[in-house]
């Protein structure tokens, strides 16, 4: 949960927003600010060829911090700004921008992106307005929910447990007839077809549904029980993954050893075996005084090759040719044994064993989750999945990845290899996985890997009759690109870190306290708390005047402290109230815009 350290949404002056950075997440944030009617000033560290094109599209003022970030912020009008959003690609730059902005204006709300939890925690504890956010922490829950098939979301609203649950429609009719006072958030209709269901966002209660549709409804647990609908108290519980028996593990261990050892190791074993057979034959036929059985010959050959000394047999009284053979045998045995020990040492203590360890552990997995891409996002998803009791296997291309030690600390096996190659996916036992999350930072690699995963899964990828299969979650940066990929290739769980994280940054900058986010199909929903300003544009506005895609699920009255839920269509906002709202985040930002419109001061 994101808390507002100022304690009041309207404490900052209602001016423009300064965004530090212009690519990646910053571009998505600027686009959304402009779409919601906000005035934006851009601060960048250096000139980039893409900057001119971006500015031409946005038509906003740009200030370059060639010499000093403080001067650039001052030029951008920080004295009249409502907030500063620091979302540059370099974390050190974000930290510097946040610190300088706070020093220039201690009362301004500063929203900063930092992946470093230690520095971010210290900055959050500074006591000033604003907040530090980690994109991986914000986006990971959506990926985890998709992997685990979680369709029930619990949200604490003023101490009341609200539930958003996806419920199959069993009887055709209107939503009001089927679900009564439960608030409809979305209806997934037309569930047949490879590209997923058509989603109607925030339909009215008179919206008609039919058998086979899935409606996502919002209400308290008691409201669901009144309709005879049971909702899970916690969907974090998962089915335990199966464990192989002793024989299966032993067989897999032998196969793993054969596969991971240097091929020359087995060649030298062959040489050693040949040497022992030859020596046994020579000794059996040629050893004199008192003669030698086959077992004696094998024993004496092994004793000679191992150079353990002669206490029972020796060559002292044997013919010259046999003594010459003993010399050859000792040198050949010494050399062969030394090479075998060298190959064993390579297998046990070299870098090769680190790469092989993940594969060997993965061979025992069944019903696990495969996470492809060991970045800040990937390790966060893997950690959350493990915390929910799931076995996890990570696939990573680079052995030198800086998160390898974090995976080792968590005890998560890492298969090192190219995830676009079928052999690597087979090593991670993707064909036996319960879910796959493809989370590298390269969209093209993610699409290629997703297609390779689909080929490995075969029939488990998709069941045309039931629309069930192994969830494959793809990370795609751009939302429109993600929609196109989902439609063309049939991926049902496409997620964008920028799309998932941007609402938190925008809401924090404009005064919305974000309580949580969740996804219905590809549509993201946000739950937040908005304080109604005395001089804001929402005072006196009735529920029915808000966008049809925004749900006010609760209203804490400033006069009494009591919570009204659900507020009726004629209920009006009053100054000092806290409104708890849910909907697509674009719609929630429109509500913020409605409040800020009355007092906005142009820079």
Automatic annotation (TrEMBL):
<feature type="transmembrane region" description="Helical">
    <location>
        <begin position="324"/>
        <end position="344"/>
    </location>
</feature>
<dbReference type="InterPro" id="IPR003148">
    <property type="entry name" value="RCK_N"/>
</dbReference>
<feature type="transmembrane region" description="Helical">
    <location>
        <begin position="265"/>
        <end position="287"/>
    </location>
</feature>
<dbReference type="InterPro" id="IPR050721">
    <property type="entry name" value="Trk_Ktr_HKT_K-transport"/>
</dbReference>
<keyword id="KW-0472">Membrane</keyword>
<feature type="domain" description="RCK C-terminal">
    <location>
        <begin position="515"/>
        <end position="597"/>
    </location>
</feature>
<dbReference type="Pfam" id="PF02254">
    <property type="entry name" value="TrkA_N"/>
</dbReference>
<dbReference type="InterPro" id="IPR036291">
    <property type="entry name" value="NAD(P)-bd_dom_sf"/>
</dbReference>
<dbReference type="InterPro" id="IPR006037">
    <property type="entry name" value="RCK_C"/>
</dbReference>
<dbReference type="Pfam" id="PF07885">
    <property type="entry name" value="Ion_trans_2"/>
</dbReference>
<dbReference type="InterPro" id="IPR013099">
    <property type="entry name" value="K_chnl_dom"/>
</dbReference>
<feature type="transmembrane region" description="Helical">
    <location>
        <begin position="501"/>
        <end position="520"/>
    </location>
</feature>
<keyword id="KW-1133">Transmembrane helix</keyword>
<feature type="domain" description="RCK N-terminal">
    <location>
        <begin position="366"/>
        <end position="495"/>
    </location>
</feature>
<keyword id="KW-0812">Transmembrane</keyword>
<protein>
    <recommendedName>
        <fullName>Potassium transporter TrkA</fullName>
    </recommendedName>
</protein>
